């Protein structure tokens, strides 16, 4: 929260709610402080699902009178830490042998290497520009006739030292979908090991100068280039019959492969 000197009125009583469980916060402002105030924190949250955080002013501002002072609630910023779990037996990054070189190649979403499930996938075509026609695939938690019990997913195989998965650019998502775009809960599986993705956080960190560029949503630099690795991106929100539809996109995949010295 901002320091007291930056508030227009005295700090009022307020509470914070995490996933519907609320806690009243005592005022921690100091007259002499010029730095932001830590008002509340939580640890050991589950990374398996998104969380709803609400900050609320409790004082009744509708019964203002000369003897009832106006109070305020200030909010400056939120610090959020997300840790991607790593397997205890995860291999170390591949060490490039002497004389070998690394090179990147791109698989666009329409590449035959991608195998899309039959449920709910659509392809979006951008207007023709100097870069040609650009595409991205998207799906959502909206129910459809072919959804059944199958969750939308895309699977591909790579052989390299690293892989990077990109979602659609923020500008393209905003122009394609009329309603507010909400990211679905997703997971990525490397062979048989799966990890939850915080896609919403990835898009929050995008610089405004990169709004027209695909967004990196997940990467791994621990692949074994000596064998083929299967990667699966999957939407894990249940079909939404009532409420807000959440979406998942894939724009491209970049693979780092090793070029052995001849």
Give structural notes.
The chain is mainly beta and 262 residues long. Helices cover 5% and strands 33% of the residues. It is built from two helices and 17 strands. It has helices at residues 170-176, 199-204; strands spanning 10-11, 14-18, 21-25, 53-57, 71-72, 101-108, 115-116, 122-125, 135-140, 153-158, 162-167, 186-190, 193-197, 215-220, 229-235, 247-250, 252-259. The strands form five sheets. Strands 7-10-15-12-13 form a five-stranded antiparallel beta sheet, with no helix packed on it. A four-stranded antiparallel beta sheet has the order 6-17-11-14. A hairpin with a 2-residue loop joins strand 2 and strand 3. The radius of gyration is 24 Å and the shape is globular. The model has no long low-confidence stretch (mean pLDDT 78).
Attribute tags:
5-stranded antiparallel β-sheet; mainly beta; globular; 262 residues
Rg? 24 Å
Q: What share of residues are in beta strands?
A: 25-35%
Across the major sheet, the strand order is: 7-10-15-12-13
* Count of alpha and pi helical runs: 2
- The tally of beta strands, per DSSP, is 17
Distance from N terminus to C terminus (CA atoms, Å) equals 60 Å
In short:
Helices cover 5% and strands 33% of the residues. It has helices spanning 170-176, 199-204, and strands spanning 10-11, 14-18, 21-25, 53-57, 71-72, 101-108, 115-116, 122-125, 135-140, 153-158, 162-167, 186-190, 193-197, 215-220, 229-235, 247-250, 252-259.
Helix and strand arrangement:
Elements: E1 10-11, E2 14-18, E3 21-25, E4 53-57, E5 71-72, E6 101-108, E7 115-116, E8 122-125, E9 135-140, E10 153-158, E11 162-167, H1 170-176, E12 186-190, E13 193-197, H2 199-204, E14 215-220, E15 229-235, E16 247-250, E17 252-259
Parallel strand pairs: 1-5
Antiparallel strand pairs: 2-3, 2-4, 6-17, 7-10, 8-9, 9-16, 10-15, 11-14, 11-17, 12-13, 12-15
């Amino acid at each position: 929260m901002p320091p007291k000197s930056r508030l227009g009125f005295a700090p009022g009583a307020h509470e914070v709610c995490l996933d519907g469980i609320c806690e009243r916060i005592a005022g921690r402002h100091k007259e002499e402080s010029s730095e932001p105030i830590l008002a509340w924190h939580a640890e050991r949250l589950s990374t398996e699902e998104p969380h709803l955080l609400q900050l609320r002013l409790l004082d009744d501002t509708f019964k203002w009178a000369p003897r009832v002072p106006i109070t305020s609630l200030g909010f400056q910023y939120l610090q959020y830490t997300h840790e991607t779990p790593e397997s205890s037996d995860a291999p170390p990054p591949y060490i490039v042998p002497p004389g070998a070189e690394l090179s990147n190649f791109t698989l666009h979403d329409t590449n035959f290497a991608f195998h899309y499930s039959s449920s709910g996938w659509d392809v979006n075509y951008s207007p023709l520009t100097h870069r040609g026609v650009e595409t991205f695939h998207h799906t959502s938690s909206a129910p459809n006739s072919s959804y059944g019990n199958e969750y939308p997913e895309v699977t591909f195989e790579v052989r390299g030292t690293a892989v990077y998965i990109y979602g659609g650019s923020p500008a393209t998502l905003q122009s394609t979908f009329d309603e507010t775009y909400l990211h679905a809960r997703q997971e990525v599986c490397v062979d048989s090991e799966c990890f939850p993705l915080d896609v919403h956080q990835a898009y929050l960190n995008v610089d405004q100068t990169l709004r027209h560029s695909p967004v990196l949503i997940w990467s791994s630099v621990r692949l074994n280039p000596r064998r083929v690795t299967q990667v699966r991106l999957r939407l894990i929100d249940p079909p939404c019959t009532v409420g807000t539809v959440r979406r998942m996109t894939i724009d491209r995949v970049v693979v780092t492969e090793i070029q052995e010295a001849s």
